[in-house]
Design brief:
Blueprint (H helix, E strand, L loop, with lengths): L1 H11 L4 H4 L9 E5 L6 H14 L5 E5 L20 H6 L2 E5 L6 H10 L4 E5 L19 H13 L2 E4 L2 H12 L8 E4 L23 E6 L5 H5 L2 H11 L3 E6 L18 E3 L4 H10 L4 E4 L5 H4 L5 H8 L4 E4 L15 E3 L2 H13 L1 H18 L4 H8 L4
Parallel strand pairs: 1-2, 1-3, 3-4, 4-5, 5-6, 7-8, 7-10, 8-9, 10-11, 11-12
Helix pairs in contact: 9-13, 12-14
Organism: Fulvivirga marina
Keywords: Membrane, Transmembrane, Transmembrane helix
GO molecular function: glycosyltransferase activity
Length: 388
């Protein structure tokens, strides 16, 4: 995260335009302008990291207009985005996040500065299938969803790290009856060396106890709740030789009900995104669990990045066997997939009981992740072809 922190400091410092945006110059490269990402998972994987990677190439140049501090209660629309006309004139492509208010004025304004500029809108989640009991659902109304569809219709290209999500919104736009729909392109979240600049990728020792981690915010409580019976069974079977930690969730539903009553576990508060990977390393995790309900919001809206983050560090994973993870995990080789409580218990037990198996699965996952799901030269070429 060293380069990310440096970029954030530069963009927030009182510098001149040339000092802040040295890439803004005439050359023969293709220019990509990433607008206003937040310093969070979505902002990093969909804008900040791609910009850093594109600037490594000989063919493309990228600028991030600003990096905003992550605030759960704010969306893109809640920030005051002022884009210098010089950046618009420089850009061939403008990458925007999903915008939930009418952005026609924003996009039309840039078109008036440069008529042939092209817009890419990146979809990071399924805004039409948010569970009603999620805290996010209270902030997003049908008016917001209608505005999103209007904004997608104004884009030239729609990207997403989830193929099903692309199909979902492509169908919605087709149902409007409009002609000249945007092109839809799958652009997966991938690993980058920028993420792990300050994080050792090798473990130094084995724990005396087995440490299991579940990571996510309170919005994931229903996913976590799907394996509560399994966790309770594990703590009863292994006692003090097993540690279970929740990273980012306090064990409670939005109503305040404690779902983890009777289960001996630890809680780690959320940290800033730039510190997340260091914290993940120093927690010294043996196994990561990724339960995910088989609902449209998950399968047709989320990405597999949580698995890849674990794999990058060589941590074996047990994940839900659904459309979200079964395309990236080879069951029994680069991780485990589970459906029923018995499958969860059996596969977690196998990893708890066998340290050699944990290392074998973790190593295979790590090798596969960096070879096939990172910014290698092959994938870099795929990414470059988005902006032609």
């Amino acid at each position: 995260m060293r380069e990310v922190k440096a970029l954030y400091r530069k963009l927030t410092a009182p510098l001149s335009f040339k000092e802040k945006y040295p890439e803004c110059r005439r050359d023969n490269k293709i220019h990509v302008l990433f607008v206003g990402p937040c310093l969070c998972g979505s902002g990093y994987y969909r804008m900040i990291m791609p910009a850093l990677e594109l600037n490594r190439t000989r063919t493309h140049s990228a600028i991030v207009t600003e990096i905003l501090k992550w605030n759960f209660n704010k969306s893109f629309d809640d920030y005051n985005h002022i884009i210098d006309a010089r950046l618009i004139l420089w850009a061939d492509y403008v990458v925007l996040p999903a915008i939930l208010t009418d952005a026609c004025y924003f996009m039309d304004g840039m078109k008036r500065v440069k008529s042939n500029i092209r817009f890419i809108m990146d979809m990071d989640m399924n805004y039409h299938e948010i569970p009603e009991d999620s805290t996010v659902s209270k902030r997003i109304t049908d008016v917001h969803r209608q505005a999103l569809i209007g904004n997608l219709l104004k884009a030239n290209l729609v990207t997403s790290p989830n193929k099903c999500l692309l199909g979902y919104y492509k169908k919605m736009l087709q149902e409007t009856g409009r002609e000249n729909l945007p092109y839809f392109l799958y652009l997966p979240n991938v690993l980058s060396s920028y993420t792990y600049q300050e994080v050792p990728l090798e473990r130094e020792h084995e724990n005396e106890t087995t440490h299991i981690l579940l990571t996510g915010s309170g919005n994931h409580y229903a996913d976590f709740g799907s394996i509560i019976v399994v966790l309770k069974s594990l703590t009863e079977a292994y006692g003090s030789t097993l540690r279970i930690t929740f990273f980012g969730w306090d064990g409670k539903k939005p109503s305040g009900e404690n779902l983890l009553a009777g289960i001996n576990c630890n809680f780690e508060h959320s940290v800033s995104f730039t510190e997340y990977f260091n914290r993940l390393h120093y927690l010294d995790i043996d196994i990561i669990l990724l339960p995910s309900l088989d609902i449209t919001f998950n399968v047709c809206g989320k990405s597999t990045i949580k698995y890849l983050e674990a794999a990058a560090l060589g941590i074996p994973v047990v994940a839900s066997n659904n459309g979200l993870y079964n395309e990236v995990i080879e069951d029994g080789h680069t991780g485990y997939l589970a459906t029923t409580p018995e499958e969860w218990k059996t596969k977690i037990n196998a990893l708890i009981e066998d340290g050699h198996l944990r290392k074998e699965i973790g190593s295979a996952a790590q090798e596969n992740a960096w070879k096939n799901h990172s910014f290698t030269k092959v994938f870099s070429k795929t990414f470059e072809r988005v902006f032609i």
